[in-house]
Specification:
Layout (H helix, E strand, L loop, with lengths): L1 H21 L5 H16 L12 H27 L2 H4 L5 H14 L5 H16 L5 H5 L3 H6 L1 H25 L3 H26 L13 H22 L4 H8 L2 H11 L7 H20 L1
Helix pairs in contact: 1-11, 1-12, 1-13, 2-3, 2-10, 2-11, 3-9, 3-10, 5-6, 5-9, 5-12, 6-12, 6-14, 9-10, 10-11
Length: 290
């Protein structure tokens, strides 16, 4: 069950990244704010099924994760806009590596040697699937870390996501997946909305959506995808460990890369084939030997 839910979350993650890239002309904060506001409006009717816990075991990780995710989303959108999608996003695969330590430290979660091997295979596949040269592939993207600011931002996002994912699981187990996703969706929408109002009052920079109202529908779709991604992930947390769930979710990198040569007619290379095999094999190893 957790594996299927993680794959669905990965598909949603990939779809959001592809759509974000297509909306590159929209200001970073506006894109984040409007997509999350639309997401909150879409799921508002689900409030009739919500009963909020009153314990700090729920509210403490919820508050921490909400603010961490706001920071991560802004950084990730910025990274996607300033760097090639297939060049920087693979570094999100470092999230489950970071999560192994974070989950053990804060939740006492341990994974098997085989699961850890599967996660490392996922990382190797992610960092080679879109390598631009043999040397880049052999260095596992190391050269990109020092040359591309977008890559550096994504590595920071990977660390933030590792911490927030542990908070997400704690809050989900203290409530229900729907309760938690509903609440943090609205929390992030409010935070982004306040930041957007503050920015518009300063009138810097020019607001791109004022002259691009056709973008509202794609932003609403993006908001719905954000909700699906989070909901599937929180459901998966009910059945699987943080590092393993996030490790399988990083199949989104494979799906995003596949979109490169199916939607954008990018060339199929030996690196892509090798990386795809590693990603798929790593996910299977995690599933079979967890």
């Amino acid at each position: 069950m957790w594996f299927a839910l993680s794959v669905l979350s990965a598909l949603s993650k990939s779809a959001s990244q592809i759509l974000t890239k297509r909306l590159h002309g929209i200001d970073t904060l506006e894109l984040a704010a409007f997509s999350h506001i639309f997401s909150a409006l879409i799921i508002f009717p689900l409030a009739i099924f919500i009963e909020f816990p009153t314990t700090w075991a729920f509210w403490t990780p919820t508050i921490i994760s909400s603010f961490l995710n706001v920071i991560a989303i802004l950084l990730l959108i910025k990274a996607i806009k300033i760097s090639d999608l297939s060049y920087s996003i693979p570094f999100l695969s470092l999230t489950p590596i970071f999560a192994i330590g974070v989950a053990y430290l804060f939740r006492g979660e341990e994974i098997s040697v085989f699961s850890a091997s599967g996660i490392f295979l996922v990382v190797i596949g992610a960092l080679t699937i879109d390598a631009r040269s043999l040397n880049d592939a052999l260095s596992l993207g190391g050269r990109r870390v020092f040359k591309d600011f977008g890559v550096q931002l994504v590595i920071l996002v990977a660390l933030i996501y590792a911490i927030s994912s542990v908070c997400d699981k704690s809050a989900t187990l203290a409530s229900t997946p729907l309760t938690y996703v509903w609440l943090f969706t609205f929390t992030r929408a409010i935070i982004f909305g306040v930041l957007l109002l503050w920015k518009r009052q300063r009138k810097l920079p020019q607001q791109t959506l004022n002259s691009n109202q056709n973008a509202y529908l794609p932003l609403a779709i993006l908001g719905a995808i954000y909700f699906c991604e989070a909901f599937f992930q929180m459901l998966a947390f009910n059945y699987g460990n943080v590092a393993e769930t996030i490790g399988v979710k990083r199949l989104s990198i494979l799906f995003t890369s596949l979109s490169g040569f199916t939607l954008f007619k990018e060339q199929v290379t030996a690196n892509k084939i090798f990386g795809a095999i590693c990603l798929a094999t790593g996910s299977i190893v995690i599933y079979l030997f967890r």
